[in-house]
Amino acid sequence: MMKLQMNMQRCSIARQAVQSTAAPRISVCGSRSSVSVAVASPRNSVCGNSRVIAEAAVMDRMPSSSSGPDEAASAALPVEWAKMSYSAQYDEIFSAPLNTKKVVPKPVKEAMKEVPGNQKVLLSDVHYLPKRPTLGPNRKWNVTDMAYAGVIGGIHLLACAAPFCFSPQMFGLFLASYFVTGCLGITLSYHRQLSHKSFQTPKWLEYTLAYCGVLAVQGDPLEWASSHRYHHLHTDTPLDPHSPFEGFWWSHLGWLMDNTVAGSCGEFS
User: Cα Rg for the chain, rounded, in angstroms?
Assistant: First the structure.
């Protein structure tokens, strides 16, 4: 009987000690705060050997009461970005030294409808107002831009001769080369394996598949993968190299002929 009472007293003392010392542990990283709380259970003491840990993620910033106006403005920044149109985000981002590591929320589609002079992408719900010059007197071309334009234009001109060279054998060659360069080279190698790291293969096979991608004339593997990762980091925002809010032409082909955008993705990534 005496031993039972002593054990009960020990358990009671142990519970009180745990409750008095198990304070939440808070760590803050950027705009995300994580809280880890140790929860005591009847077995979380000398009476047992198990421990229950509850963790909660706090998404909102948690400025302290002593923070100044700069910290308060910084805490409210994500809310402001989330309300902006693409045009407003573009003007804000490029009005100061560029920080390519700062991720902003996607622009609001509905807000773009209110921007004066906006246009609608055909068969789409996207409204856009081009902020980057694609053609015209304001567009500055460098040697790389002209080289890309020449290659892309030349390929399309050669394609116009296809009907005059048609034969079942040539059509079969087209299907085979499309599978090797497009399916194996771009989709499987450049996109899934090199950009997203979806799977691994022996090095000899990885290099073989990457060479198939080189045959598609879409750039070297490092350039392609870095541009694609940068696109996923800043999808649809003004830092996206081919944002749809710049219009169909830009997002489909125009961005490839502007090396100030396409060429910088590798540096930023």
Answer: 29
* Structural tokens at position 243: 């944002």
Distance CA 240, CA 224 (A): 14
Q: Tens digits of per-residue pLDDT, 121-148? A: 999 999 999 998 888 777 888 898 999 9
Closest Cα partner for 139 from 148, 131, 127? Answer: 131
The proportion of the chain whose per-residue pLDDT surpasses 90, expressed as a percent, equals 50
Is the dihedral angle over the CA atoms 37, 38, 40, 41 positive or is it negative?
A: positive
Measured from the Cβ of residue 62, the count of other Cβ atoms closer than 10 Å reads 13
Q: What is the pTM of this model?
A: 0.66
Distance, CA of 262 to CA of 242 (rounded, Å): 9
Q: Which structure tokens are listed for 113?
A: 């409808």
